[in-house]
Design a protein that fits this description.
The chain is an alpha/beta fold and about 425 residues long. It is about 35% helix and about 15% strand.
Length: about 425
C-alpha cells in the first residue's frame, strides 16, 4: 500500500500515477516549476480508497483512529465539541501548553541542544494598552523566544536572523512548544544564526487582521532605533538579513508578513527570504484536496478542524467567499499582487489537507516571475515538521541548505569560542 503509511516513494509520479525512472531528489520527492505533480487524489487512488479492498479498509481504520486521537488532543487544547468558537476554553488551552512547552534556558545553554541559549522576550502590541494573551492578565505584549548561537555570540560577528511564526490555525499552540524548540535549536546551531520565535494574539478572541498585525509589529519592533529590542536582541542579529519562516497558519502569516514588508516599507529591517511551511490560505472555492473523502479523517488536521479554524479567524458578519478576497488572506489572489516579494522556499506535505493551497501559491509565485523553490514530501502529513523522523530531518536539511544558498551566511572566524 503506497502513501503516508509507507514512507518514501520511489521516483517521481505524475498526475496519472505513471511511474518514471527519474532519480530520487536529494530533498523531498518532487517540486519546482517543471516537476510533475502528485495530489491527494493520486495517493487515494493508489491506496484503493474508493475500492472495497483490505488496503482501503485498513487505511480508513488507521486514519479514523488517528483522527480520534487528534480530536481528543483538540479538546485538551480548549476546543468545544460543538465547534462553536464562543465556547473555546482559552484557560484550558493555556494550561495544556504548560505541559508541552519548555522554559527558557537563559543564561545557560539549553539542555536540549548545547551551543544554544534561549531567552523569552516581551514584544509590544501596537495600539493596545492591556491584553490577555496566553492566560496572562493585564499585559500589553506578546511573548517571543530568542535563540542565540553561543559560537556566534562569542565571535561578535553579524549573523542573519530568522523570525519564526508558529502554526495552530490562528487559534492554538505557542512559540515555546517543545516541538518548535527542537527544530529551531537545530537550525540555530547548525547555521549559527539568531532566531526570534513569536507569539501573536489568537482567534476566536482576536480575528483577522489581529494576528497579522501582531506579526508585523514584531518585525517593526526589531527595527526601531530605540526600543527594548536593542536590549534583548543583540545588534549582531542582522536586521538587514531577516528570514521569515512559519508553519500552517504561521505559513500564511509568513507570506502575509513578506507582503506587508513590501507594501509598508518599514524602517530598520529587511526581509531577504521567506519560508512558508505547508501554509493555509483560506482559498475559495475549496481545493480538490479539501473536498476529497480521504481527508475527512486526515491525521493531525481533519476537514472539520480546518473548517473550525477558518471560521474562528474570519470576522463576524462576512462570508467566507468575501473573506478570501480581502487583502492578505488568500495571498495568491491578493489585490496587491505577487511582484517584488523576497525569494521563497516552500515546504509541502503530500498527505495534507492543505497540500493544494501551498502548491497553488508557489505556482502562482512562479508565474509572477518570483524566485521560488519548493519541495513536496509525498509521504508526509500535516505538521510533519513537528514529528521526529526521516521526513522531518530531510526537510530540515533542505531548509538549512536553502537559507545557506539564499542568504549570505559566511562561516564564523577562527576567533569564535567553540
Amino acid at each position: 500500500m503506497v502513501g503516508w503509511m509507507d514512507g518514501w516513494t520511489d521516483g517521481w509520479v505524475d498526475g496519472s500515477c505513471t511511474s518514471h525512472t527519474t532519480p530520487k531528489m536529494e530533498f523531498g520527492d518532487r517540486g519546482g516549476y517543471l516537476s510533475p505533480e502528485k495530489t491527494v487524489e493520486d495517493f487515494a487512488r493508489e491506496n484503493g480508497w474508493s475500492d472495497q479492498t483490505l488496503a482501503s479498509w485498513w487505511n480508513y481504520i488507521f486514519r479514523r483512529f488517528t483522527s480520534l486521537v487528534s480530536s481528543a488532543s483538540m479538546m485538551m487544547l480548549g476546543f468545544p465539541l460543538s465547534g462553536d468558537g464562543k465556547d473555546f476554553q482559552r484557560s484550558l488551552h493555556d494550561f495544556s501548553m504548560r505541559f508541552i512547552s519548555t522554559k527558557a534556558s537563559f543564561p545557560k545553554e539549553s539542555w536540549i541542544r548545547k551551543g544554544v541559549v534561549t531567552k523569552d522576550l516581551q514584544i509590544p502590541v501596537q495600539g493596545v494598552t492591556k491584553i490577555k494573551p496566553h492566560g496572562v492578565e493585564g499585559v500589553d505584549y506578546n511573548v517571543g523566544r530568542l535563540y542565540t548561537p553561543t559560537r556566534a555570540a562569542a565571535s561578535r560577528q553579524k549573523r542573519p536572523m530568522v523570525v519564526y511564526i508558529h502554526g495552530g490555525g490562528f487559534c492554538i499552540l505557542d512559540a515555546r512548544m517543545i516541538a518548535y524548540d527542537m527544530f529551531l535549536m537545530e537550525v540555530c546551531h547548525r547555521l549559527d544564526i539568531y532566531i526570534l520565535s513569536i507569539n501573536y494574539r489568537m482567534s476566536p478572541e482576536h480575528t483577522y487582521p489581529v494576528p497579522m498585525e501582531d506579526a508585523y509589529r514584531a518585525l517593526t519592533w526589531l527595527g526601531e532605533p530605540v526600543s527594548q529590542a536593542l536590549d534583548n536582541v543583540p545588534v549582531e542579529a542582522d536586521r538587514n538579513q531577516i528570514v521569515v519562516m512559519g508553519d500552517s497558519a504561521g505559513g500564511n502569516l509568513t507570506a502575509v508578513l513578506s507582503m506587508l514588508y513590501r507594501d509598508r516599507s518599514p524602517k530598520g529591517v529587511r526581509i531577504v527570504h521567506q519560508i512558508p511551511i505547508y501554509p493555509a490560505f483560506h482559498k475559495r472555492p475549496r481545493t480538490p484536496c479539501r473536498l476529497h473523502p480521504s481527508m475527512e479523517f486526515a491525521p493531525i488536521l481533519s476537514r472539520q478542524a480546518m473548517e473550525d479554524f477558518e471560521r474562528y479567524y474570519r470576522p463576524t458578519g462576512i462570508s467566507e467567499t468575501d473573506f478570501a478576497r480581502l487583502p492578505y488572506v488568500c495571498c495568491e489572489h491578493d489585490p496587491h499582487g505577487l511582484q517584488n516579494l523576497p525569494p521563497t522556499t516552500g515546504i509541502v506535505a503530500g498527505q495534507d489537507i492543505l497540500r493544494d493551497e501551498g502548491v497553488s501559491y508557489f505556482r502562482a509565485l512562479e508565474r509572477a516571475g518570483a524566485r521560488v523553490e519548493w519541495r513536496q514530501w509525498d509521504a508526509a502529513v500535516h505538521g510533519f515538521m513537528s514529528l521526529p523522523g526521516a521526513l522531518q530531518q530531510n526537510a530540515t536539511d533542505y531548509i538549512i541548505s536553502r537559507i545557506e544558498t539564499v542568504v549570505p551566511c559566511p562561516p564564523l572566524s577562527h576567533t569564535a569560542k567553540l
